[in-house]
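Worked example 2:
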Amino acid sequence: MKIAFYAPLKAPHHPVPSGDRLMARLLFAALEQSGHDLDLISDLRSFLPKPDADIYSGVEKQARAEIERISHQWRAGARPDLWFCYHPYYKAPDLLGPVLAARHEIPYVTAETSYSERRNIGDWARMQEHVLDGINLAAINICLTNRDRSGIALVAPKAQVTMLRPFIDATAFLRNAPQSNRIPQRMITVAMMRPGDKMRSYHLLADALACVSTKIPWSLSIVGDGAMNAEVVSLFTRFEPGQILWHGQATTLQIAELMSESAFYVWPGYGEAYGLAYLEAQAAGLPILAQNVAGVSEAVQDHLTGILVEADNPAAFAFGIERLLTNHRERETMGAAARQFVLGERTLEHAARRLDEILTGLLRKKP
């Protein structure tokens, strides 16, 4: 089928890497792998980092122009079978799809719609209205987490919902056999260096490492870059030379190679919707150490593929680090389970089949 694909937060070709951009690319790839014909329908970015009525009015004006442009294109004979919107939420609502889907009588589909009533304040409330309208209009809302599904159920109990679990393209991370060239005391983390939750996680990680016994040798590979690079580096200056290995921004293949050399993956996980890097590390055969916070449990199986400790407790996180550093057998057992977990249900191939099942089911129902 012909699918109009739109990501109002960050298009798949956006120059700045992030989990949102990666999932947009993964969904696009999964839909193409299912044999569908995708059109990246618009580059309009509706994202506002903070509420601003004047700026938002300008975005709405741009959206109206885009609607007319796309309508003209479709009237010329290129109308798709459905509209697929990835990740509309209060900071980046879909201002195009609901109008166009209704005008041209095609199904409207969302993936990873996020809605929280606590955001209904000030100018955010205006943007939230667009998100809720889309939820109610959608022929199906594809949820990637139980948190998002619950959020929709609270405000739109009659909305149509289904689940698609977070997934990755595991190809690069399966290239190396697990345990083939591991460095037993080597940990790894992969995360952008930006304000907010990422910086908060770096703070807790540094504080936890400072609590690890000096009798236990360790080293940590840090992959990432961003506006807070200098601040992140300063957090880890307390450690001995050689304990922290800085790799900067890296390609997927480079990250996979670094993971193949590491014993386990560490990242506190504040604010993670699910954390695709957790799935990548598990595909590489690494157990995970994270906090039981946000959506981390959507990607990590506690006590099976990793260890999830209580939030805001550097000492508990340090204990988890010591446990995995000193228990080779547990690392091996968890690492094998982690790899199987991803291979069994979280690959691009699984997602392609699931998406095709969802979307072809919609067209069968269409009168």
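The longest strand covers residues 2-6. The mean pLDDT is 94.
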